[in-house]
Amino acid sequence: NYLLGVGRADCTGPVAEIPLMGYANLEQVGGGLLTRLYSRAFIVADPEDSRRVVFVSADIGMVSQKLRLEVLKKLKKKYGDLYRQDNVILSGTHTHSGPGGYFQYTLFWLTSKGLIKPSLNAIVNGIIKSIDIAHQNMKKGNLFMNRGTVENSQINRSPFSYLENPAAERSRYSSDTDKEMVMLKMVGENGQELGFISWFAVHPVSMNNTNHLVNSDNVGYASYLFEQEKNKGMLPGEGSFVAAFASSNLGDVSPNTKGPVCINTGDSCNNPQSTCPVGGAKMCMAMGPGYDMFDSTRIIGQNIYLKAKELYDEASQEVTGLLSSAHQWVNMSDVLVELNATHTVKTCKPALGHSFAAGTIDGVGAFNFTQGSVEGDPFWDGIRDQLLGEPSNETEACHKPKPILFSTGEMTWPHPWHPDIVDVQIVTIGSLAIVAVPGEFTTMSGRRLREAVKREFDSHATPGMDVVIAGLCNVYTHYIATYEEYQVQRYEAASTIYGPHTLSAYIQLYRSLARAIATNTVQELPRGPEPPVFNVSSVTLLPPLTVDRAPVNKTFGDVLKEVRQQYRVSEVAEVTFVGANPRTSAENATEHNFLTVERHNNTSDSWHIVQNDASWDTRFYWTKGLFGQSKVTIEWHIPRGTEPGVYRIRYFGHYRKRLSVIHTIAVPFEGTSSAFEITTQ
How is the cofactor bound (predicted)? Predict the structure, then answer.
C-alpha cells in the first residue's frame, strides 16, 4: 500500500499576443483559446516513512530551468524538505500551442519576445496548486501497471536518420517509432478511481504553426475525453479524476500520419532533405489524418484515449516496493564519456547546426535552409560572423560533421544562450523506474537509454525493472539523436546541442543514477554544480497593454453580430462581441473563464452552464483593431448528442480603464447573445 494523491490546476496564462512556444515562429502569437492548459500532479508516498515522489505533467511546451527553480523555491517555502529537486519530476506534454515567455536562456528568451511574468507566474502557480491539491487529498491506495500498442497515431519524421542506426539494432524492433503506451493506474483502497499517468511517444503537433488558439493538442484532447468520462456531470476542468498523457522519447515522432507532401503539387517529399522540386523545403509539410488540424487533433487524441481506456480497464500488474529518487546537476558541455576500456570522448559546448533553421515537416523553418546539411552556407555563415561572432575552432571540431549555425555555448550576451548545467534524474516506484530527461530523445536514443538503465538495475540485483522515459523535464536542451543519426544532420541531429556523443554521455550519467538507487548509495552521489539564475530583464517585445476602447455608441460586451435563431446539431453557433484584450483578464483573475454556453431550464426558468472555455467544442477568438478597439468571436461547434432546447452564449472579460496619467484599472464586464434554439432535424 502507498499513500496516493492526485491534483489538477489551470496553468493557461495569457491567451493573446504572447508567442506560442514550440515552432519558434515569431508570427505565431496567441489570438484566443480553444481549450485550457492544466498541470496534473501525482504524489506517491510511503505510509511508513517520509519517502515520497511527485510526478507533474503540465500542458506546456517544455519545462524550463527558470520554471523548475521557481517551483522548487515555492515548494521549499511551503513544505520544507518534503518536496525537493531529487523527488519532484516536472514534465511538459510538449504542446506547441501554449504561451512561451518563461525562459532565462537567451535563445528561448528571444523567440518568446522576452521573459513574460504573467505567463511564467500562471505556470508556476498552476503547478504548485496541482501539487497542493494532491498533497491535501492523500489517501491509501494501490498502483497498477499496464502497457500496450497504440496504432495509426505516429510516423517517424526523419526515417532516413533512423536508417543510419546499425541494421542489427534495427532488426530487433518492428517499427521505426515506439508504439508502446505505459500506464500507471491509481486506485484508492476503497476502490475509488483516482487517476493515472500514461507515457506515449508522439509530438503534440496535430495543431500546426498557423494556429493562434491556445490549446493542449492531441494528448490534451485525450486527457479531456478521459476526464470528461470519469468526472460525469462535471464541466471540463472540474472533478477529482486526473488523467495525464505525458511525453516520452518523441524526438523524431510526428502525429501527422499522412506524411510529408509538397503543399503546392501534392507529391510526396519523403526524401533525405525533405524538399520539393518547386519551392524547396518550405513547401514540404506533413498532414494529419483529418480534414483540417482540429479534426486531426481529435482523431489522434481519440486513438490515444481509446488505447488508454483499454489499458486502464485491464491493468492488473500491481506495483509494490520501495520509493527512491536520485538527481544530479551536470555540466553537459564538459562530460568525459568512456565508450570502452580504451576509448574516451567528450561532449561539446552547446551549438545548433544549419539544419536547425530548416525546421521539420511538422513546422518548416525560414529562408532556404534544408534538413541534412553537413556543410555550412557561406552567405548565412558570413551574416552570422558579423552579427553574433564565429564559432571557435575547438567547437567546430567537437561538433563535426555538424556545420554550426549558432555557437550558442560561446554566446553570452545579455546572458548565456543555452544551458551548460542540466538535470539528470531517476525516480523509482517499486519496479517502475521513471527516467526524467531534459529534452527530446529520438526513438532509437530512447531505446538505448531504457535498455542501459534496465541493464544497470539487472546487474545490481534489481532485475525486472520497467523503465519509462519522461520527456521534456526540468530544463530544455533540444534534441538527443544517436551518434549514427547525428552523422546525417537532419533537424533532430542539428539540434543535438552537446555534440555527437550527447547520448553516450546521458547513458553514462543515468546508469550511475540507476546504480546508486540499486545499491542504496544515492546519498553519496555528488550534487553537481548548481544552475545559475540570471537577473533577466523585464523588458519584452510584447505590444504594451493599453487602455481598451469600445466603438462609438457601444459598450464592452455589446453584441456586434448576433447568433441565428435556430441551429441543428453539428452546426456552428457564432456570436461577435465588443471585446477587450484578454491579457487584462489573465493579469487580474485566476482561472478566469472567458465564456459559457448555457441551456434554459423551463421548469425553474433559469440558465444552466453546459460548456465553458475549457471545452473542445468552443472556440474563443480575439481580434485586435485600431486605437484600443477589439472584437471577440465565440464559436460553439454543437456536438452530436446535444439536447434540443434553448441556449445562449456568454462572454466574460476585463477592460483596462485609465483613472489618471499613471494609473489604470481592470474593469470586469460581460456580454450575452440572444437565445437560440437547437432542434433535432
Answer: Binds 1 zinc ion per subunit.
Taking 50 as the pLDDT cut, the residues of the chain under it are none
> How much is the pLDDT for 589?
61
Is 79 marked as a binding-site residue?
Answer: no
Single-letter residue type at 327? H
Q: Where would I find the H helices in 80-216?
A: 106-111, 117-136, 159-162, 167-170
**Does residue 397 contact residue 369 with C-beta atoms inside 8 Å?**
no
Single-letter amino acid code for the residue at 371: Q
Write down the pLDDT at residue 679.
Answer: 94
Per residue in 2-49, pLDDT tens?
999 999 999 999 999 999 999 999 999 999 999 999 999 999 999 988
User: Could you give the domains of the chain?
Assistant: 2-321+424-475 (no CATH), 558-679 (2.60.40.2300)
Number of H helices, E strands in the chain: 14, 38
* Per-residue model confidence (pLDDT) at position 242: 98
221-to-16, 76, 123, 196, 507 alpha-carbon distances in Å: 21, 33, 19, 15, 33
Residue 681: its pLDDT value, please? 66
**Residue 203 annotated in ligand binding:** yes
The set of cell numbers assigned to 218 is: 492531441
Active site residues: 254
Q: In this structure, are residues 227 and 309 in contact, taking their beta carbons and an 8 Å threshold?
A: no
DSSP for 64-80 reads: -HHHHHHHHHHHHHHHT
> How would DSSP label each residue in 140-175?
EEEEEEEEEEPPSS-EES-HHHHTTS-HHHHTT-SS
Residue 94 known to bind ligand: yes
Q: Is 530 annotated as a binding residue?
A: no
Crossing angle of the two packed helices 65-79 and 117-136, in degrees rounded to 10:
40
